[in-house]
Amino acid sequence: MYPKNLTFTNQTLANDTDLCTLDTCPMYLANFTYVPNLAGNVLYAAIFGIILVAQIYLGIRKRTWGYLAGMFGGLILEIIGYAGRIQLHFNPFPFDPFLENLICLTIAPAFLSAAIYLTLGRVIVIYGAPVSPLKPRTYSILFVSCDFLSLVLQSAGGAITAMADDGDKSAHDMGINIMIAGLIFQVASLVVFMALCANIWNRIRRHPDLVSEDSAKLSALRRTLMWRVMMWALAAATIFIIVRSIFRVAELWGGFNGSLANNEALFMVFEGAMLVMACSALTLGHPGVCFDGHWADGNWTFKTKRGEKDEEAAVPLKQRSITALCA
Fold first, then answer.
1. How far apart are CA 102 and CA 147, in angstroms?
2. pLDDT at residue 313 is higher than 80
3. pLDDT digits (tens, 9 = 90+) for 95-150
4. Residue 73 included in any domain
5. In whole angstroms, what separates CA 22 from the centre of its chain?
6. How far is the C-alpha of 159 from the C-alpha of 322, rounded, in Å?
7. Which residues form a coiled coil (predicted)?
């Protein structure tokens, strides 16, 4: 790292680093103590762009609107974030591209997590509500709400950091701490989500009698290769996002001048590569392909119709849809 106590005689540039360039200012005044690698950041932006095109195609064709919304939001933010890093390659001093990179790449995984949460409820529909300790709708409401809170905290922290004056260390630190709180909350939500998924899988494996009569008719679907790929993809993507989020907590905890925040190699592995693998898994194991266009049949409602059993209200998969899926 570059020392911060060196004397720079041009006070105009020292007071407004947005005016700096690599030819006029020393690197210790830059947002990073390194120049972001052009090839690596262009590669990540391109990969996320390709995945975005695939997600839009599959989302529209399979009509998985909720899943598409989550993936679209996350991938767009990833592309914008890496566009900011590409700008910083040519000039690492301006603050706006740095914020573009910081905020977009920090909050993007919250949208990807939402896509995963929305899928679990529909997976439970296929196995039957008795395999789960919670109703399908509860997973979506609970974890998407947690995801939203995490997103609000991270966004608010980023906004406070962006609006803080250069000399206002208190506001700057508060913004970073709020972002860290949002990331920690996101990690905690994902860990609880993984624990509940493990519980469901254990119940299915140990107590096959819990699978309802209707969902038993879907055994052929559950034995397909694509179904298994989807289940492993969801698990892998969740783990990748958890690893990435833990890294970002450690990175922000050390501050922008810390060793982690200024180690591009670690960033490219634990931020970029983790999310490339997560998004690739969520595309290769796209639930719309497995559900074969019946994604919407797993929708739930907030109200229970009079005379309906609670389980039936929680799992409103129409009988004709089950028959179609089994065909």
1. 19
2. no
3. 899 989 999 999 999 999 999 999 988 888 877 777 888 888 888 889 999 999 99
4. no
5. 34
6. 47
7. none
